[in-house]
Amino acid sequence: MTSSVPQPVTVERAVSPPSAARRRRPPAKLLAAWGPALPLLLFTLATLVLPALRLLHDTFALPGGGYGFDHIVKVAGNPVDRQAIGGSLALGLTQATLATALGAPAAWLITRMRLGGRAFWLSLMNVASNFAGIGLAFGFVALIGSTGMLTLVLKGLFGIEDNPFPSLGSFNGMNIVYLYFNIPMFVLLTLPALSVLKDDWQEAAAVCHATRWQFWRYVGLPVLAPFVLAGWLLVFTWTIGVYAVAYAIGSSPSATKLITLQIGTTLETSVFGLGRAAVLSVLLMILAVGATALYRLSLRRAARWL
């Protein structure tokens, strides 16, 4: 007698294709979903997309018609333009590093303050980060310029003949001025992210007999590194694009050459130099887009701790 083994029964579920009504959203619903964003999208198109396309066109357009790399070759072969590119990159790297080295400990201390002290320092950082432009440049000229108040006081007290402070248009002078708003900006950018490091993690590490150095080496620094890197990238991008402060303190012939100043000088002195200014502007765009892409990658890595 043979026993029959029951065969498994497979049930096939018929999946109906989505209907046309589901695939295609009605125009009324599409307009209701995107309608509130249309003014912002149009503004972005008019102020960002179209100017960027025009800059790309002017970069490769030739005076006699057609397209080529003549403007790029001229900028690459111009010593002044090369100095401007190197000066902007050096200033951006220096500012981002100094702002990170000085701003990260300050942000960490502010997160550990009481509510009253934290509110005071946050308001102070907000004022300092937003006080830039011509007003900030005039303030530093009046303070540590060649005839500034602090300069005259030091000369009178110690009999110093030369200016004890570097020229504001020099590389060191620009670093002093830029740090005034870059450090507060770095603190404000990284302050919310630093709260991700919980006190419970330190207590758990202490229970496991981990030293403070071991906690920061294996837990604290790996967690905070993406946030700090994101702040570093934003300060770098902001620094290479500043124009008003650089124009106010870097108008002398011996001042540090920067990309933004070179663009302004080209537009002011030469009507036929639009291609040269366009090349430098596109270079700034490439640097900003690259830094923004790295910024998003850094935040994506840091988001797993949130």
TrEMBL record:
Membrane topology value: Multi-pass membrane protein
Source organism, top-level taxon: Bacteria
Residues in ABC transmembrane type-1 domain copies: 85-295
Alphabetical list of Pfam families matching this protein: BPD_transp_1
Compartment(s) of residence: Cell membrane
Membrane spanning residue stretches: 31-53, 89-110, 131-158, 178-197, 218-249, 277-297
Database matches in PANTHER family: INNER MEMBRANE ABC TRANSPORTER PERMEASE PROTEIN YDCU-RELATED, INNER MEMBRANE ABC TRANSPORTER PERMEASE PROTEIN YDCU-RELATED-RELATED
Protein family per UniProt: Belongs to the binding-protein-dependent transport system permease family. CysTW subfamily.
Name of the protein in its database record: ABC transporter permease
Organism in which the protein naturally occurs: Nonomuraea spiralis
